Amino acid sequence: MQTYKGHIMANILVVDDAKVMRFHISKLLxxxxxxxxAQAKDGHEAVEEFKKNRPDIITMDLExxxxxxxxxxxxxxxxxxxxxxxxxIIMISSQxxxxxxxxxLKKGAKNYINKPVTSEKLDEMITHLGF
Length: 131
What we know:
about 45% helix; Rossmann fold; 7 strands; five-stranded parallel β-sheet; globular; alpha/beta; 5 helices
């Protein structure tokens, strides 16, 4: 098990439909010492990457287009939790609309971060989750 600055390092899948956000979040995670093992642009890709890579944590954009009958971030959470109920999913949202966030949490996401995503927010959340 790898550690960095006293923390356990996580293997993370970054899911966001915006390439620039995937790059930004991946860069921040890398700077914190975590390993981004894969990226996905929608829920369908997230499920495929999860099956291939089995990450410790998934960061999931709340607002994404429907892909292969997986409706956005909430649909992806639902599908992923069916595959692995213990999966750690952190929702990332620019929404202040709490209903969608609470729906994602009911479906199995562990917590959420509001955009803009910062190194401090990610570090605090991942540390809180035991990494």
